[in-house]
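Hi team, as promised in this morning's meeting, here are the two structures we talked about. I've kept the exact order from the run log so nobody has to guess. The first one is mostly here for context; it's the second one we should focus on when we meet again. Sequence first, then the predicted structure tokens.
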Amino acid sequence: QVQLVESGGGLAQPGGSLRLSCAASGIIFNIYDMGWYHQAPGKQRELVAGITSGGRTNYVDSVKGRFTISRDNAKNTVYLQMNSLKPEDTAVYYCNAKLRRLPDLYDYWGQGTQVTVSS
């Protein structure tokens, strides 16, 4: 059974920091591409940051220079360090694990963790 368990969300002030963690089980973690998505009320879920199995990263423009995604394959965990937080970062953040082995796609989601940025 695959599980992705996020933690580290909460309330932060503008300019503050939070670190999200996502612990994976039930998958061979080091072959999966991992990502963090967020979804604000009334909006679609969108990719915030991704990291491939080989460690290549990508970010949505709005978080470049502020957020850092990393992974620890020994701990089966992916992280999202969020600095210089803005109110518009407020959303539910979801961890995603994805593996493409054509024709199959293995795609798993965590339950989400709320991040609220407010003074």
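And here is the second protein, the one for discussion:
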Amino acid sequence: QVQLVESGGGLVQAGGSLRLSCAASGRTFSNYVMGWFRQAPGKEREFVASITWSGGHTYYADSVKGRFTCSTDNAVNTVYLQMNSLKPEDTGIYYCAVRTKATPQYDYWGQGTQVTVSS
């Protein structure tokens, strides 16, 4: 059974940084893509970033490009989202999710971690 556990959220002032972690277990993820999503209060969940477990190919939403960076540590099956120059509009619950490279749908989701950016 695939399990994803996020950590690292918290309260930070605008301009600050946070690093989110997503520990994955339950299978070998070499052919998978890890995604980060977020949901702000009253808004729909939106894509933030993704990275392939093998190759480390990344893709970012325009709103975070240049500020957020995805990386993996395959030795411990953990994906990171380094978030710099945070803005109040980055506030929300951040989720990690995983899908195979062959499908666009993310099949497994973590429980989420709260990020709050104060102005």
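Starting points for discussion:
The first strand starts at residue 3 and ends at 7.
DSSP finds no helices and eleven strands in the chain.
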